[in-house]
Every structure is written in structure tokens, then in C-alpha cells.
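Pipeline run #58 for the internal structure catalog. This entry was flagged by the ingest filter as a single-chain record with no existing model, so it goes straight to prediction. Upstream metadata was stripped on purpose; only the residue string is passed forward. Reviewer on rotation: M.T. Logging verbosity set to normal.
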Amino acid sequence: MGYHILEFGRILDYRDELLRTNPESTCVVKLGEANESGKAVFQSFYVCFGALKNAFMGCRKCIGLDSCFLKGVCRGQLLVAIAKDANNQMLPLAWAVMKYENKNTCTWFISLLKDDLGLGDGRGFTLITDMQKGLLAAIQDIIPACEHRMCARHILANWSKNWRGIQRRMLFWKCARSTYEAELKKNLKALSMLGKNIVDDLLYYNKETWCKVYFNVEVKCDVVDNNMAESFNAWILAARHKTIITMLEEIIVKMMTRIAKLREFANTWSCNISPMALKVLEENIEKSMRCTIFFNGDTGYQVKEETNQHIVCLRNNICSCRAWMLKGIPCPHAIAAMYYKGYEPADYVDNCYMKETYLMTYSHFLQPLNNMEMWPASTNPPVAPPVVKSMPGRPKKIRRKEAIETKKCGKLPKTGLVMRCNICKGVGHNRRGCHKSATAAASSGSGTTAAEASGTTAAEASGSGRPRGRPKV
């Protein structure tokens, strides 16, 4: 338990070792006022490796921000910035350890992230966050021109407190994943049939932040949730229980080995398109078989899918459903037009999903570090750890689940199941309360055998078997 004092005491030496072994990196340690012993108290730690800065140049300009609680002695929070690579997998860019998540700490983190990734005023970039007030205020102050999306999963968690039910939840996701205005209106109309003021309560949350209809098409990323950041928090779950330098070292090692494995993973691709993008393309090809197409002889195509009808222009890579522009992968309507003209749909996939882009992302590597005993001598002053505050109650190890979440293991709940008796096959009772079972028990209890009448047991009457209990001495 006292090892955290040594690690916090040498946090400045750890910063110097990171900068020495990984050039072009940024590592900042923020200290507070000195305590009674004259040592500066630790406040925050930020790191962004030069290899990850260069890797972000080959990714889409969409960043997810999220924080998670640390379970070590001093607690605190870990704030992380995540991007997506060409295969839609997470790429952590920077992370910071801080005591609390508020407007001041988030502003400090966003300012450093802005300088490292070259975000400027945010124009041309998209940030996805949860409903944290500190992050929202920091983003508006530092990078106001960026597109700001809210995680639809957290919108659903707050909205469904008053509007529960599987059907309502499914319609919510249909609304969030609507790609054009008419589709959104249709889904909102269907949702309005499930409760009075249900749509008004949903539109209380700005629909431009969680619905695909209003997303920027230049980013080529149509995600409506922040699952890439949630995946990182679960990926480092074991490290979050350890002291600060041990935790940071474990995260770096996991990142170092991950980059090497993903670099080798590209050798298993069957074509020049990433496997995740190829899977989406194949699904859209299958859907395109159900489309009917009409060609005007120039560049316009009228594609009919069931009751929907869309316009496609292959010259400008445009479809009125907007799914092609949002994701960068041809939609079923565009694929139908391509097959009509004899074109290959794979040639129209955006460059952000190509193998060359993927290899460019993972062509930069993190360099290993020596252990604490091998660090060079330093004149940095020792740092005091933050004050340990023991919270009341037993510490929780498992995340508190939302009401809409279901258990993935153990017994399933019996909510909604109809009780059925296995004797009379009736509903509303089991065999204990069955009238037929009670009748059979009464009839068997009223009758006695000859052996019972004579006061002998069945075993004594037949002459077989041994008497129960211990023999009397």
C-alpha cells in the first residue's frame, strides 16, 4: 500500500524517461501547492506519444473522448482520446490522469490535445463525448468550430428513465440511425404512437448531436455512440487497479504490442480493403439485389427499394439517402447503379479504408522503457501523492449497469414468463398448487395397507431390508 508514495515521488523522472526514449512526444506533469512537508502535490499527468501523433494523420478526423475511474489507492480518473483506424478499430491517441474531472482539468487536457493533434479551431474535425458538463464547456471554449456529437447510448439511458420498453428502444435507435430527413420523420411518427409527449422528451436532447441526418459527411464516420472509448476503458480494466507508474507502464506495453500485432494483421487481408469495410460492402451488395433501377441516359439514376426511392449520381459519389457520403462505403442504391453500368463497387470505397492507409497508420512504433532502477540520475524534486480519501461503504468492482442492460451470464430473469403446471398443463399455477395433485394426495393418504394396519413396516412384512437407525445397546 505504501508503494504508491515511491511512484508518485518519481513521476517527474518517469516523464523525463518517456521524453528521452520517445522523441517528439508530449508529457506534462501538473503539480499543485506544497504540503506540510514541503513537497509539491501531484495533480495531473498527460502523455501523447509522437508515434500516435503521426498515426492520427492516416485516420479519419473523428475523436472520441471519455473518462473512467481509477481503482488504485489514490483513486482519480483517466481521460482518454480515441480515434478509429481503417478497419474501424480503436487507436488511442492521448491519455491523462487527474484527480477530478471538471471544467479546469478538461480545459487543460483539451488544450494540450489541440496542440499535439493540430486541431486548430476544430474546423473539419468531429468530437464524440458523453454528457459530461466539464468536457462540453471545454470543447466550446477551445475548439468551437468542431462538430460535436453526443453518445446516443447515454441519450437513451437518460430518456428511457421515463420511457421504457423494447419497442421504444428499438424505435429510438431507428431515429438515431436515420440518414435522411424523411426517414427520421417517419420513425418519430411511429415513436409518437407509443406515448404522449414521448417525442417531445426525446427532442429535448439536441437531435443534431445524436442523429445521422445532421452529421458532417466529410469525416467519413457515421458512428452515433462512443463505444470506441468504452472499449479502451474495458481493455485497461486490470491496469486501473494499480499505482500510477505501474498503470501507465502497463498501458504503454499494451499499446506497443498492439501496434505490432495490427501491423502484422494487414498481411492476412484478402484484398486491398479492410475486413470491416469489406463486410459492410458485401452486406450492401446483397441488399442491392432487391433494388429496381431506372437510368436517364446521362448521370442520373432513380433507384427504388420497397417503398423508398432515391437518386444516385456516380460522377459526384452522391445518393439521396446520404449513407454513402456519411460512411464512405457505397450504399445499396449506389451499388445497384454501379452494377447497371458494369462498374466494380470496390473501386468506389473511400481511401480511408484502404490497406495503404492502414499500414501508414501503424508505421510508427512506441519505444520501450527501462525500469525505475535503471533510470539516469535526476535532480527533480520528489512529488507528494494526492491525499487519500477513503469513501464510505464497500468499494465496487463491477460497473453499475443501466436499467436497459441485461446480464450476460448467470440465470436469465423470468420476467414476462407464464407459469404453467406440468401435471394439468394449466396456466397461472405450478404443480404445488394444482388441484389434481391435491386430489391425488388426499386419495392416497386415506387408504392404508394391511401391513400398516398391523403395525409393521413394509420392509418387516416382506422380511427383507434392515431396520433404520442405530441398533440399541
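catalog note: Confidence is low (pLDDT under 50) at residues 448-467.
catalog note: The longest helix spans residues 244-265.
status: ready for reviewer M.T.
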